Amino acid sequence: MEKDLDNNLLLDVKELAVGYETGVVARDISFTLREGDYLCIVGENGSGKTTLMKTLLSLQEPMGGEIRTGRSLQRSGIGYLPQQTLIQKDFPASVREVVLSGCQGRLGRRPFYGSAEKQLAAQNMKRMGIERLSAKCYRDLSGGQQQRVLLARALCAAESILLLDEPVAGLDPVAAADMYELIRQLNSEGVAIIMISHDIEEAVSYASHVLHIGENAWFGTREEYLAQRGEEVLRP
What kind and span of H or E run contains 186? Predict the structure, then answer.
């Protein structure tokens, strides 16, 4: 990623195309992300939402366009909460171990976690209200508790931005509402959010901005999205 932005602009994405060796999945994606923004990415299944996130994380190369990052943003400043697989849900490690693993990017050449990483993990477990679960096995937790653990893990990696891929998928309505509120609170504390969600109406209600990926990509404020796209784009 090219780095030459100033002030509070974290990301400036222009005419981005994303995809794989087999071809482009989505193109003409342009948006900005500033400190404190809450960006909701919506679109039909297969439209390229997760592919976009992986491209923003430098897990795959863009097929075209550019991604520019602010000078204050380091790669270690981005936390990622991917969609969970069945294997991940059955992971045989303690809550503390899972959360602490989010600090790996901070180790540099050190082979072991130090007091700073352990303190950060403890702070984020407390922040997510799971400190009492620290010794429990991750796979024995409920779906909502597991998502809190993974959010704490992502916070250990994040300084500026959290990327969340379907963070309420598979949760019951109460746990989903709880997760949305946790994310809203983090955003109110200054963490910029980029979130993919199929729950468009609920997710957009929290967002400051919306990126709609599809045949005609669109980016704007939540108010502009609701006014210009209306009920038609709110249908999954």
Answer: helix 173-188
80: part of which helix (H) or strand (E)?
strand 78-81
- Secondary element (H or E) of residue 16: strand 9-20
**Nearest CA among 92, 101, 82, 84 for reference residue 138:** 92
Residue 112's nearest CA partner among 100, 122, 121, 123 is: 100
pTM (predicted TM-score):
0.86
Token output for 50: 């997760």
Residues with Cβ within 8 Å of residue 62, at least 6 apart in sequence = 16, 17, 18, 55
Tens digit of pLDDT for each residue in 12-47? 999 999 998 888 999 999 999 999 999 999 988 888
What does the DSSP 8-state code read for residue 199?
-
CB 79 within 8 A of CB 161: yes
